[in-house]
Specification:
With about 700 residues, this protein is mostly helical. Helices cover about 80% and strands about 0% of the residues. It has helices spanning about 5, 10-35, 55-95, 95-110, 115-130, 130-160, 165-180, 180-195, 195-205, 210-220, 225-235, 240-265, 270-275, 280-290, 295-320, 330, 335-355, 370-385, 385-410, 425-445, 445-460, 470-485, 485-500, 505-535, 535-550, 560-565, 570-580, 580-595, 595-605, 610-640, 640-645, 650-660, 665-695. The longest helix has about 40 residues, at about 55-95. It is globular. The two termini are about 30 Å apart. This is Glycine betaine/proline ABC transporter, permease protein. It is found in: Cell membrane.
Length: about 700
């Protein structure tokens, strides 16, 4: 009775065949394109004659719309200019002792005496460095942008919670707002509002709104039904139930949204300085970078970093109770004493101003006035060790960046590497790739084998010489099989839009730069995260470093990279890696630390070595968390493209930045949407892969 079942074909083989068949057809198409790309160059380089002038059409529509609505927006700009000036004057009027007292009291109430000491040290550094007025101007922008973002985000979040049918549209809009580079939507803001601090204020408010929307919806969705029913049974009206039951219950999540919104607004200060041009910290960083005054760049960049860390700790301290409970200092600083401390600070400010109304109370010469010698020393250091920095840059450029861009076939030339690969070496490379694909197929399945073959092809041809029909069809096929037909059509539409607008070369530059940055971040960050998961000491050392990297504005990462390696793609790679390396460290550590202990013990009792336990038990179980870290790493790398464009890249970020300089709304919008498309596609692919993996495991 069991013989027929024993010889019956496996149903899994037939289940795999339909999914494998399109990839076989794609492999045949790839071989044909590679054979014909010399005779048909349009397979690699999309002809300019085939592009569509969509940017011109968008500019024509924009000119008409701007001419009609510009007076209203200019009036709104004038209306916002008054509170902006008022906030700047008020903060400039406050003497630094009063500000220090008020911030120390808030820090004491938020997280205890350690944060209070850090707050005093941060403000003392700002004072001694000579950046106090600029810091107050930056705080004025943040203090005005954050309430606008909070109110707007709360209203949109309540709308998304109350109207579930509108949530897909709202989530799509939020995805665009968080993935389109800030430079892209600065262009319409410039056309509508003109140059000035108000444009930076509005840009910061728009950029900082999505976190509040998402956290509002999340907080209200998580209100237990029992609590809502208890409010109704108590006789509450719908308004009373919302404000007195649901909002207080969701308050911790709302405060997390407040924290993230504040940090997002602060991260925009340098971008706002590009179009605002008033004397704040962002303008100081930008000016010193343009003048190659690396001493001032480090001083001013450190001011932004310290302010970001301080504001992050202040807001997150109010957002959540400490895990170990309130400290003695926090218990002592009751709300009544906090109000009293703030009143004392204000009274101190009034007394100081009445006693010395014209005194600045600031140091006569801050540290930034004495940085000439430091600038000379840094320039001398870079000059004396130029052989080392140039060697590192050239090694990475010729061994990693060029092979990713033009492939082994383009790099192994007398001009690039100084030699050419013989046919026997190319044959050995092909055999090696095929052997790895067969091994991957036996161990992990045909999907892994296809990934190995694709990686081998890209490494041989490079991103620049890869035929665009093959690339588009491969990504669309992958998206369709992982996320469904709609995601596949979305991939085709997005890449088609980029192609017909003549942005394919910039797309390829973006892809290879971000791909290399993400791979290196996963390699380095994954190793550090694994180390931290197995060592509490390493975890304690890495935590403040990750906190600092995560809270620093993006522009700050350009300073050390630009100082040591000058302009170029390697500098952009370093800046992208510094910004994107935190997610793999944190998610890998979190995933490995929270693997079920009984599973690990069972594997160890079976005689597995620590390496086998890690590779065969811990990492597979932690894979969903690691994939989320990969998602965040890709998002961070793509978000740095527009910032990295300032140091000489030729990618989509550079297209956005050039469009900003020309006030080309059409090209800026298309290039910005292209980056947003890449981010959304990567996000949906990883989410779908994690969901399929979770469904398969259950």
């Amino acid at each position: 009775m069991t013989a027929p079942a024993a010889i019956a074909p496996s149903p899994q083989r037939f289940a795999i065949a339909p999914a494998l068949l399109p990839w076989c057809a794609l492999a045949v198409l790839t071989a044909l394109c590679l054979l014909l790309k010399t005779e048909l160059p349009w397979l690699v380089n999309f002809p300019k004659e085939w592009t569509l002038p969509l940017a011109t059409y968008i500019n024509a529509v924009t000119d008409v719309v701007v001419a009609v609505v510009q007076p209203g927006f200019r009036a709104l700009s004038a209306l916002l200019d008054a509170p902006m000036r008022g906030a700047r004057l008020a903060l400039a009027w406050l003497p630094w002792p009063a500000v220090m007292l008020a911030v120390a009291a808030l820090a004491l109430k938020s997280s205890g005496e350690r944060l209070a000491i850090f707050a005093l040290a941060t403000l003392a550094y700002i004072l001694l460095a000579g950046y106090w007025p600029q810091s107050m101007n930056t705080l004025a922008l943040v203090l005005l942008a954050v309430p606008i973002s909070i109110v707007l985000g709360f209203l949109l979040g309540v709308l998304g919670h109350a109207r579930p049918r509108w949530r897909p549209v709202l989530n799509g809009a939020l995805d665009l707002m968080q993935t389109v580079p800030a430079f892209a939507y600065l262009i319409p803001l410039l056309l509508l509002f003109g140059f000035g601090p108000v444009v930076g204020l509005i840009a910061s408010a728009i950029y900082a709104t999505p976190p509040m929307v998402r956290n509002t919806m999340l907080g209200l969705d998580r209100v237990p039904a029992a609590i809502s029913e208890a409010g109704l049974m108590s006789g509450c009206t719908r308004r009373q139930q919302f404000w007195q039951v649901e909002v207080p219950t969701a308050l911790p999540q709302l405060l997390v949204g407040f924290n993230q919104t504040t940090m997002a607004a602060l991260s925009m200060v340098i971008v706002a300085a590009i179009i605002g041009g008033f004397e704040d910290i962002g303008w100081e960083v930008l000016s010193s970078m343009r003048k190659a005054e690396f001493g001032q760049s480090i001083l001013s960049g450190l001011v932004i970093a310290l302010l970001a860390i301080l504001i992050d700790r202040l807001t997150i301290g109010f957002a959540r109770a400490p895990e170990t409970g309130p400290t003695r200092a926090m218990r002592w600083m009751t709300p009544r004493r906090l109000v009293l401390s703030l009143a004392v600070a204000l009274a101190l400010a009034v007394v100081i101003r009445l006693a010395a109304p014209d005194a600045t109370l600031l140091p006569q010469t801050g540290l930034r006035m004495q940085m000439g010698a430091v600038n000379e020393w840094l320039l001398g250091l870079v000059r004396d060790y130029a052989w080392f920095f140039n060697g590192v840059r050239n090694a990475v450029l010729y061994c990693l960046l060029l092979p990713m861009r033009v492939g082994i076939s383009g790099s192994a030339t007398p001009v690039m590497w100084g030699f050419s690969l013989p046919p026997s070496a190319l044959a050995a490379y092909a055999v090696l790739v095929l052997a790895m694909a067969v091994l991957a197929a036996r161990r992990l399945g045909w999907q892994a084998a296809a990934a190995v073959l694709a990686a081998g092809l890209v490494l041989y041809t490079g991103f620049l010489d890869l035929p665009w029909p093959v690339f588009i069809l491969a990504v669309a096929l992958l998206a369709g099989q992982v996320g469904g037909p709609r995601l596949g059509l979305f991939a085709v539409a997005g890449f088609g839009l980029i192609l017909v607008n003549g942005l394919w070369p910039q797309l390829v530059q973006s892809l290879y730069l971000c791909t290399l940055a993400v791979l290196l971040c996963l390699l380095v960050g994954g190793a550090l995260g694994t180390w931290a998961a197995h060592s509490d000491r390493v975890s304690h050392v890495l935590k403040p470093i990750c906190d600092a990297l995560q809270t620093m504005p993006q522009f700050v990462f350009l300073i050390p990279a630009l100082m040591f390696f000058k302009v170029g793609e390697f500098t952009a790679l370093i800046a992208i890696m510094l910004y994107a390396i935190v997610p793999p460290i944190r998610y890998v550590e979190h995933g490995l630390r929270h693997v079920r202990a009984d599973v690990v013990e069972a594997v160890e009792q079976m005689g597995a070595t620590p390496l086998q336990t890690l590779l065969q038990a811990k990492l597979p179980l932690a894979l969903p968390v690691v994939m989320l870290g990969l998602n965040q790493t890709i998002m961070a790398a793509l978000s740095m493209l527009a910032i990295a464009a300032l140091v000489g890249t030729r990618d989509l970020g550079q297209a956005v930045y050039v469009a900003l300089g020309k006030a080309d709304a059409g090209m800026g919008l298309i290039a910005g949407l292209s980056i947003a498309f890449l981010a959304i596609l990567a996000d949906r692919l990883i989410q779908a892969a994690v969901a399929r993996s979770a469904a398969a495991s259950h």
